[in-house]
């Protein structure tokens, strides 16, 4: 088994491996965070959005005269007005076009129809009630299955669009896979819906747009996970000169993928500020957030595994029908229409796989964001881990044993998967062994065997996930053409303190601490002496932002690389100061010394000072640099989660009574922060498995449109977790780290569901879709169809 | 109408509409933005303040009703030095994005006053009117317990 | 997020409040804890022209054991009845329900009387009150009426107060014998309203037979539902699992739940059935002197 990385720095320096306390916390614990809604500018106006009450309708007319006449109302903006500026439509992150304010039709409940700009948010809200829209209701298409068979064309405005298909895509090799299935001893199949969910960070989305009427400078304070990309998109959409656009992402109250897209509200607020000449603030309510901004998942999946007579997996088929909503707005790399779903062969060693995917337009909100997920890897991981469990149960084999039999072995890495990924490193058996030991797997199986069949039913669920994160090598990965590299700029000041500027953007992950630790590791400057700046496009180098667990794999690598660049320059300076040849110098945390005479050394602080006061002739002054890192490969974090549940047969409720999560995310930079990320992710995974989803009625009304109906667990329902770790460094990442922000949301849902299904397997239950609601469990136990 | 609310020990008077919610009074009239807004259904507790020492959701009370009362916000926790809760949230990684943190700390404060060494379940129960999307709660519970121990130790 | 405008009145005495309520008539609405009214106003589902804030009537913030009953004043918050000794001794059903109403912060502000007046069929208190046979004291400038809870709860968000009246007190009678009770609520998380819930109450005579019984249901009809038939089945009988099962079946048949995102009607009936059985069993253990 692999071991924890032993820190090479002292705790005071706080390099890799130290649980350095977070530098950002001082302001947060004092209520001095600076979120978008906290920003107040002189003369600032407030915007509120009128949204469609129906899912599908033609707009026959909008009468805003009463609203316009209200005291305090400055303007009412409609789609027709935006058309005048060519701003009624905007591109999505998947190359589709989305309405900013509806002109022709509304295509989902909650769609933006008009906006009021007023002197006070209360007045803006009042005025919404004084705008009258004449709708001619149309048939609402609420499922992708319905969408593919109906005559109703949802995107009738879109040139060349003659059906409701948003995209089709495939990966893998159909012929080889057909052969594997033809030769199969047994085929195990599963049909499953990974329901629509919403990231719902505690802070909703919003902006303060400030267009200076004199200078033309556009400053937008934005809840953005990707400020640089957003600046470019604003420049392209609005035709504004990019150098005059400054996006500032201040403190972000959670993102989870929700703050990756550009939303109509941002565009309208900016247009309004441009026209009115005053700053305009727009902060959406929770209900608006849930009903209109980027959802995640909504994949209808059919999967099957081919098995040979030795219970080895020989092939996999997966077919996806995705519910895209009214616009194709997935936030994902251009090449991959179903994101990285084709990682669905998971942790298992077999040679044949084929994936087909089709997306359908429906009368629902657009989205398809990577909700705490690396581009659909969550759906992929769920499908394979549910299938693996189902296969084991059908064979009558222990699900842990079945996995161990089929795992990719440690010595097989780098491993070439049948859908084209090259897994960098892994030790799946190691994680499984540790997880089983920590939870006393055999003990629980024994309790399960001995249980009272009339009492609460024990179920044990496993998920052994493999993730693919850190997009990505620029030859394959781009978003709307922007290659997915990332960057770091490091300036070491004369007194030996430093500023690190990044293209990524923290939303709570603790970048100000973690990235300082990488510099501390590489240069020996104390992490606490390094200020990290992100989220201001005027003052940080270009990057694609934070989502899909890419900050550490890409931005973190860029940080290590720029620090190494400076170290090379420092070596030259040290040679100058020590009057030695560069080759004779030895680096040890924080200092260069002359080989063989350790008493003759200079510290990085000495060197920094010299860089500005005593640099050799012919050398550029200063100690600073920038690095754009283009990763050679993705990283592949993995782990095994085991959950034990008890199911109440009377009411169908289930409770997690024990849970172990063993994660391997490579080298852990700040173990405290890593554990925090995992605990949070396990909780979101639980939420999705247990309660959290958005559904729609037949008319397209969103059920689950606020926190009374869209359920987010409190501390009370949240399970208690035991965490374990193994460390298998990434061989290609400069410090061996793999990224960890999403592993637990990706891996854990299948473990919870597997546990409940395991409890009910002997009663003939083979599947329950998420969320595993009490009435669904009860229905499964009693043979009652309980849709939804 | 004129209301006077004692916020963190200082009487604050403002002329407001009766419909002004206490949270907006605090955030926009007084410019104290540590109290947050995370939902519109009284579900999340990001707006938690102490009203005469008792935690309530300031998004579901009119500022008018707070006339003559004492309100404590996160800005009032620090008293020269950081409050033990502020220290322990830092030390136990009790926060990530920081949005729910003020509410969690204030609920923690009220809890510790009546129960200085709460169990895991007691803390979870007390904070069950407050949502956190980042931490998974474990470290929030630990932070509140650690603060209790620190206060007791003094 | 932002409520509509209204005129605000904050009387300093009950008399002043009653006069104002009388004067405003249909244009006025009492503001108690605001934990139902303000959320509705914020979502613009309610737009009262006048609010009469009763939060200054601190004389009404009591939970008292009076002669024959437990008295809960109009300003007693949900939190005031959680872990309250009077409540525990006089009304075990109420004590059992109290921690499960809303969430801890909402309980610090919302009032028991306000909740009862609100008559939300998904609200918890009216089931408790129906099970234990509570009554509501309605006061106006012209005097007081004591309304049995069964007459007070009219329908979906409708009570039987007349213009000029407000609820000033809720009374829960003391059990005559050895009593037990429970409130079993299926909720999806803390802060959720009930998917279904059952309030049970048993008052045992000295010979161990059931002298008085209460069964009432939450969220499975257009109002909180007292299952009189089940209660009648229990009264006068010697408690037994079979008897409880029969009563539970009656309760399940009596309710009329809607199928929705929380489950089909059939499921909710099954839950009512199971919880009635469990609730009665719990009540019995407690009435017989065991731990609940
Ligand atoms: C997040 C959340 C979760 C909740 N969960 C639950 C739950 O699980 N179970 C539950 O039962 N409730 C729940 N509630 C509602 C809560 O219990 C409210 O406190 C209660 O319904 C209303 O009481 P109030 O004092 O807040 O009344 P208000 O909101 O002030 O008033 C409600 C209505 O009653 C009228 N009213 C109030 N007091 C009087 C009076 N004395 N005389 C005449 N009329 C009066 C008002 O005019 C108004 O029409 C929840 C509320 C929230 C915000």
CATH fold descriptor of the largest domain in chain B? Ubiquitin-like (UB roll)
- Total separate domains of chain A: 3
Low-confidence runs of chain A: none
CATH architecture of the largest domain in chain A: 2-Layer Sandwich
Short summary:
The complex is a heterotrimer of chains A (788), B (154) and C (292). Chain A is α+β, with helices and mostly antiparallel strands and 788 residues long.
Question: Characteristics of this structure?
Answer:
heterotrimer; A: 788 residues; alpha+beta; Aldehyde Oxidoreductase, domain 4; Aldehyde Oxidoreductase, domain 3; 3 domains; 5-stranded mixed beta sheet; globular; B: alpha+beta; Ubiquitin-like (UB roll); DNA polymerase, domain 1; 5 strands; binds flavin-adenine dinucleotide
Descriptive notes:
The complex is a heterotrimer of chains A (788), B (154) and C (292). With 788 residues, chain A is an alpha+beta fold. Chain A has 3 domains: 151 residues, Aldehyde Oxidoreductase, domain 4 (2-Layer Sandwich); 186 residues, Aldehyde oxidase/xanthine dehydrogenase, a/b hammerhead (Aldehyde Oxidoreductase, domain 3, Alpha-Beta Complex), CATH 3.90.1170.50; 238 residues, Aldehyde Oxidoreductase, domain 4. Helix content of chain A is 27%, strand content 25%. In chain A, strand 15 and strand 16 form a beta hairpin. The two termini of chain A are 45 Å apart. The model of chain A has no long low-confidence stretch (mean pLDDT 97). Chain B has 154 residues and is an alpha+beta fold. Chain B has 2 domains: 73 residues, Roll (Ubiquitin-like (UB roll)); 69 residues, [2Fe-2S]-binding domain (DNA polymerase, domain 1), CATH 1.10.150. Chain B has 5 helices and 5 strands. Chain B has a 5-stranded mixed sheet with strand order 2-1-5-3-4, with helices on one face. In chain B, a hairpin with a 2-residue loop joins strand 1 and strand 2. The longest helix of chain B is centred in the last third of the chain and has 16 residues. Chain B is globular. The mean pLDDT of chain B is 97. Chain C is of the alpha+beta class and 292 residues long. Chain C folds into 3 domains: 47 residues, Uridine Diphospho-n-acetylenolpyruvylglucosamine Reductase, domain 2; 116 residues, 2-Layer Sandwich (Uridine Diphospho-n-acetylenolpyruvylglucosamine Reductase, domain 3), CATH 3.30.465.10; 110 residues, 2-Layer Sandwich (Enolase-like, domain 1). In chain C, the strands form 4 sheets. Chain C has a 5-stranded antiparallel sheet. Chain C has a 4-stranded antiparallel sheet with strand order 11-12-13-14, sandwiched between helices. In chain C, strand 12 and strand 13 form a beta hairpin. In chain C, helix 9 packs antiparallel against helix 10 and helix 10 runs antiparallel to helix 11. The longest helix of chain C is centred in the C-terminal third of the chain and has 23 residues. Chain C starts with 6 loop residues before the first strand and ends in a 5-residue tail after the last helix. In chain C, 60% of the residues are buried. The model of chain C has no long low-confidence stretch (mean pLDDT 97). Chains in contact: A-B, A-C, B-C. At the B-C interface, strand 4 of B face helix 2 and helix 5 of C. Flavin-adenine dinucleotide binds next to strand 2, helix 2, helix 6 and strand 10 of chain C.
